[in-house]
Specification:
With about 80 residues, the protein is an alpha+beta fold. It has one domain (about 5-70): Orthogonal Bundle (Ribbon-helix-helix fold), CATH 1.10.3990. The chain is built from 3 helices and 2 strands. Strands 1-2 form a two-stranded antiparallel sheet. The protein is globular and about 40 Å long.
Length: about 80
C-alpha cells in the first residue's frame, strides 16, 4: 500500500483534471461509487460542485469518504 498521494485522472463535466490521493482513499472512493451504482467521474463532479472554493478537490474527496464511513458507525463511535 502506498501512503503517499498518487495523481489520478478524472473527467468532470467533459474536462480532464487530476487529484492526488492516497491509495486507501482512492480505493474507498471507488468502492463508494460502485456501491451507489455511479461512475466515479460523476460522483467526483458532484463533490466538485458542492465543495465551494475553500478546499481543493482531493481534500473534498477525502472528507466525502470520511463522512461516508462515519455515517455508518453507531452513534457516539466517532
Amino acid at each position: 500500500m502506498n501512503d503517499r498521494p498518487v495523481k489520478r485522472s478524472l473527467t468532470l463535466r467533459g474536462h480532464r483534471t487530476s487529484v492526488s490521493l492516497e491509495d486507501a482513499f482512492w480505493r474507498a472512493f471507488r468502492e463508494i461509487a460502485q456501491s451507489q451504482g455511479r461512475a466515479i467521474n460523476d460522483l467526483a463532479a458532484e463533490i466538485d460542485e458542492q465543495r465551494g472554493t475553500e478546499a481543493g478537490l482531493a481534500t473534498a474527496i477525502r472528507l466525502f469518504v470520511l463522512r461516508h464511513y462515519q455515517a455508518q458507525l453507531p452513534p457516539g463511535r466517532f
